[in-house]
Amino acid sequence: MSAKLHLMKLCVGAEGPGDLAAWQASHFGRAPALHVTRMWPKRDAELLAGGSIYWVFKGVILARQRILTLEPVDGGDGVRRCGLVLDRALVPVAAVPRRPFQGWRYLEAKDAPPDLPASREAEAPLPPAVAAALAEMGLR
């Protein structure tokens, strides 16, 4: 992960990364996932240099997806929106608590949680509340 800039977004309605993966599979099959957001990132070139979207589930960052490209999307009302075209791989990351926010936020690489080691990727994810409590204690 060489990017210097990422996005962070709440994943509303999903209990965890498994729910998001299942939803994306049901909507996009094997094609890249598309997440549409109202605002176009002003720092798009930095995001496209290897950036990811870090997903926050119930107050805890638990996974990321690489941003492949950005596409304009017209919602039928004439308003240009931003379609984040995402790699289908959901990469588990160390749990980091985040307070609620609206929309998306930029996330500098220095502040992004590290990917979980490959030896831990097969583990079932902890419930978000447990992951948040452990992260607050400094135990990831």
Question: Mind explaining what this structure looks like?
Answer:
The chain has 140 residues and is α+β, with helices and mostly antiparallel strands. The chain is 18% helix and 36% strand. It contains three helices and seven strands; from the N terminus they run E-H-E-H-E-E-E-E-E-H. The protein has helices spanning 17-28, 44-47, 128-136; strands at residues 5-10, 33-37, 52-57, 60-74, 80-86, 91-97, 104-108. Strands 1, 2, 3, 4, 5, 6 and 7 form a seven-stranded mixed beta sheet that branches. The longest helix has 12 residues, at 17-28.
Brief overview:
By secondary structure, the chain is of the alpha+beta class. The chain has helices spanning 17-28, 44-47, 128-136, and strands spanning 5-10, 33-37, 52-57, 60-74, 80-86, 91-97, 104-108. The chain has one domain (5-136).
Annotation keywords:
140 residues, alpha+beta, 7-stranded mixed beta sheet, 18% helix, globular
Low-confidence runs of at least 5 consecutive residues: none
Q: Note the beta-strand portion.
A: 35-45%
User: What class do helices, strands and sheet pairing give?
Assistant: alpha+beta
Largest sheet entry: 7 strands, mixed
Q: How many individual helices?
A: 3
Helical content stands at: 10-25%
The structural domain count equals: 1
Give the CA-based shape: globular
Please compute the radius of gyration using only Cα atoms.
15 Å
Write down how many β-strands occur, each being a DSSP E stretch of 2 or more residues. 7
The span between the termini is 20 Å
Mean pLDDT: 88
Helix/strand order: EHEHEEEEEH
Oligomeric composition of the shown chains: single chain
